[in-house]
């Protein structure tokens, strides 16, 4: 049982005359209740001149209907009603004696005690609602529910005591209905137009007044909810569709970037995404062998070898005390030794590095391409014929126990020269961040250099082209691609002849690269600035494609 | 990589870089170094003794060390926020190379006292002043040096 639902309010009242057979014989069937021709009988339509006094036990939008009657009071109660209610007004006894019909009580609001007596009497009957009227014959709409006229003096407790809604109509309407309740309370023959009616209607049928109170919320409230639900549904659908579409678009872009990375068009390192690391499979294909001193005096002794010819200049002059194979300089098993760097170098499109294509786990000891006496990570010296070393594609060597964790966990760049150790056709898993970064970078480059696309591309894949050309860098003719900053100074010895010239051309490239780094820095800052949680959640749904 | 740190520390204490005294902040923790750097002659900081904290991350040398001036200093490249953070190009994590040594980093820091890098400044107002009104900059820098860095 729901208590008062405040939003219910009466909108109008309809009274009409119904004929129906005795439910005792025919049952209470909806189709048995038939309206009597309104030209021959009483009917009344009252719009808007109706007040809602109590909404107890009503529900919004559910119209209240039933047969009209006047509750019967106990003898002695409310003597004032005598003059207001016709003697033969429809009473409970004039209606079928069953509790399965709906009733609507009607009574004048004379004073609190009368009202209480009427409401208590109606409580005994299957009453759907009670309609009061002020016996003043006024045609005006009754006062508001909080008017003192309706006060019973119990602080409104009656509204919960009597579990039906209560309405009030104007005095004149109430009086009119009351008068007609007297006409339609007995046999057909006593009714207005009784003779005509009796020709059409079985005289054993009841002909009584019925009323229907139209209650607000009937259409408006549910439709509001439905409307909201529809809007919500549409919104969710829009969200789902755009989200799906954006995810799809992202996926396409990831795939496109991946293709471009593999084709060498984009250098993923240059995007400045951290934590591009080297997978174990790639790492294991990098040459691993025992360090051999090439006797080149470490560091600053510049004149002994240009780096194109370390093997020939140092055919293992330090005789190993052990029985290791000597003079591994021209070892055919080591495809990595830069035997002919000049020939292989000039083509900008690299053939995949041979040592990486075949799993070369452990190579026989041989000198490193450059003389590097210490591991740059732990600063320990390598011991000839003892220390195992890992050589990166840029030919820098390290202890495997130093470089492997670094490449696996920290970076894919050589710690010495910052060149990528990843094979040219390797693409790390492409993330959406990479796609965004790459697009942003491209757009910024386009804005910075609208007329200069080729050099921009050069910047993009710069590090890789250095890897490819590094082995021949010392020969002067091919120097331009090599940025001076990337030369691992203690190792690579620049021949005096080319020393001066090799500085100039790379400058522009280095400047471009610096510019790239600057852009990257700016973007990193920008990205760090916007990272609240909600943004991430929203980002999952609507990925930024920027 | 504690071995490397020990090695660098030994090198630094046996042959300290010019104008610097280096020791551990706490003998138990080789990741926290304290450096006393003398203001280079010919700079506004001459005569000052600046204390620096060098913090080495767990995965040093893969990650760059962090430099903080614990002595207040008026310099475009040192943050004036009580932390005294110094941002050298080589200390940025994407430019850091493991072969770089702490001694080199410190030498670079000291060089920065001689020649502030206004392009890469943290304190842009100081950098602007350095560029536009060198005299006023040097006056303030000297004053601060006297005020904060003249002790012991």
TrEMBL record, chain A:
Compositional bias ranges of the Pro residues kind: 312-323, 347-357
Gene3D superfamilies in alphabetical order: Zinc/RING finger domain, C3HC4 (zinc finger) (3.30.40.10)
Signal peptide range: 1-19
Name of the protein this chain belongs to: RING-type domain-containing protein
Membrane-spanning ranges: 224-249
Region of interest (Disordered), residue spans: 297-369, 487-510
Residue ranges of domain RING-type in the record: 375-418
Keywords: Membrane, Metal-binding, Signal, Transmembrane, Transmembrane helix, Zinc, Zinc-finger
Coiled coil (residue ranges): none
Family annotation (SMART domains): RING
Entry GO MF terms: ubiquitin protein ligase activity; zinc ion binding
The UniProt record lists the keyword Signal: yes
InterPro entries in the cross-refs: E3_ubiquitin-ligase_domain (IPR051826), Znf_RING (IPR001841), Znf_RING/FYVE/PHD (IPR013083)
Example GO biological process: ubiquitin-dependent protein catabolic process
Biased composition, class Low complexity, residue ranges: 298-311, 324-346, 487-496
GO cellular component terms, semicolon-separated: cytoplasm
UniProtKB/TrEMBL annotation, chain B:
SMART domains the UniProt entry points to: UBCc (SM00212)
GO molecular function: ATP binding; ubiquitin conjugating enzyme activity
Coiled coil (residue ranges): none
Domain of life: Eukaryota
Name assigned to this protein: E2 ubiquitin-conjugating enzyme
Sorted UniProt keywords: ATP-binding, Nucleotide-binding, Transferase, Ubl conjugation pathway
Enzyme Commission code: 2.3.2.23
Leader sequence segment: none
Limits of the UBC core domain: 1-150
Cited PROSITE patterns: UBC_2 (PS50127)
Class of the enzyme per the UniProt entry, highest EC level: transferase
